[in-house]
Amino acid sequence: MNVRMDLHVKTSKIINFFSQLEKKKIISQSSLANNVLISLGMANAILKKAISKGFVKAKAAPYKRYIYYLTKEGFTEKSRLVREYLDSSLNFFKKAKLAYQKILIDIKKKNYEIILVGDGDLADICKLSILQEDIKVAGHLKLNKQKNFRYKFNNSKKVAENFAFVIVESKNPQLIYDKLNSSFGSKNIYYPKFLHISKKQ
After folding, report:
1. 118-165 pLDDT tens trace
2. How are strands ordered across the β-sheet holding 137-143?
């Protein structure tokens, strides 16, 4: 995952963190961390920074616990982060869709059959581009829990040389590329630049 996407995820977690504090419940830092799916260390760091900036206040509660709540400044900051997150999401969506459209147009010219590889939001974005370009998908490969491919082909009997493998996952793009390269070679593997895949073995 690249730096821009990392920041996007971090912003999302901070927004969720602030949303938890809106409830004004007695809660421990470990519970906060669990609810937002972050580490205890990160929860502690976010709280310290938010308190120092006046976004959050804490009141002591029984059994060494606290009531954390957002201040007026905290609500303003949350609104700013939500706006920033949405703008970033829309901007990324447009760029990703355009990147996949260029890839698909190139594949269409070569008369390859498309195999999508991966899962998640990028797969959905690519599928929208596929609909727009009126291209058929020959199959879909996804990683299982053991990090191996699950094959799903749409009744295609063509050999791998006629397939174009399009990587549509942001979680494990390098692993996917390496597995495809070792199985089929790098010639027909396509992916957008923002996945920052290295071709080195």
Report:
1. 988 899 999 999 988 888 888 888 888 877 777 655 544 444 568 899
2. 149-153, 137-143, 113-117, 163-167, 189-190
Pair of tokens at residue 139: 């199959």
Q: Are residue 118 and residue 187 in the same domain, yes or no? A: yes
Tokens found for residue 176:
């996917």
First to last CA, the chain: 19
In this structure, what token pair is assigned to residue 110? 């070569």
Q: How many domains does the chain have?
A: 2
Residues 130 and 55 in one domain: no
Q: Is the pTM of this model over 0.85?
A: no
Give domain status of residue 75, yes or no: no
Cα–Cα distance between 100 and 128 in angstroms, integer? 9
- Cα-to-chain-centroid distance, residue 64: 37
99 and 191 co-located in one domain: yes
Show the domain range for 21.
Answer: 3-70
SS3 assignment for 144-189: CCCCCEEEEECCCCCCHHHEEEEECCCCCHHHHHHHHHHHHCCCCE
